[in-house]
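The following block was generated as part of the benchmark described in Methods. Ligand: manganese (II) ion.
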Amino acid sequence: MDSVSCYLVRGLPSIREGDDLAAMIQDRFPLRDGDVVCIASTVVSKAEGRSRKLGDYTPSPRATEIAGRLDKDPRFVQAVLEESEDVLFDRPFLLVATKFGHIGVNAGIDQSNVGQGRILLLPENPKASADRIRWGLRTDCAVIVTDTCGRAFRCGVAGVAIAWSGIGALRDWRGKRDREGRELEITQEAIVDEIAGMANFLMGEGGDGTPVAVVRGLEYPKSGGGIFRPRDLDVIRDRLGEI
Ligand code: GDP
Ligand code: MN
Ligand code: MN
């Protein structure tokens, strides 16, 4: 692999519930076998009808208490709690594990690029969404559903993969040798996040209207690996209660 290309899919309209993203993408872009189609979770959610009115949420006492402390709308906090399986901490912001296993601030619920008084939940099962979109393509492509997230320890948001299909999450370097002949023992490279980061860079965060980027020229494993550490190996998560 000497070079890769990354293209935006131009001309996508405002996505509405029921839209067939696979059809809309391949109508506008000449996909080829092996392409990695990166799709912002925002539009996957819109197509799946995951927009909600804030006014439809009734805050529980717990949501009201957290919201008061964080200076947030209690209905928004209620929505976050309803999408969560576990609250990792609730100060100075709300970090949760979603029901489908993603860890993110506010359960990845967005208030940008949605209407006034509305919020957009992440897809209910992004892995199923990625599979469905991939199966809807006429070409043999991989699909990555991306979201823009903050990172522990590091400033600035970046694109990450929240689900993928037809590609392995990790490139395994274990057993390979470095330039000095030393065998690599640990290195697994989170390639779906690296690809999502590049795609997210092109998509932008604002009003560009470009939620899909196609990465071409990559060699990648077709399967394998998960992104979140198994619970028993996640020493940082275990210590969060001490914060
Ligand atoms: P997220 O990273 O998945 O939370 O999505 P963002 O809100 O950051 O949006 C990513 C890109 O998709 C930006 O270029 C937005 O302008 C674009 N976008 C968001 N919603 C739509 C839509 O309904 N239609 C189109 N064409 N672009 C959208
Ligand atoms: Mn988002
Ligand atoms: Mn984004």
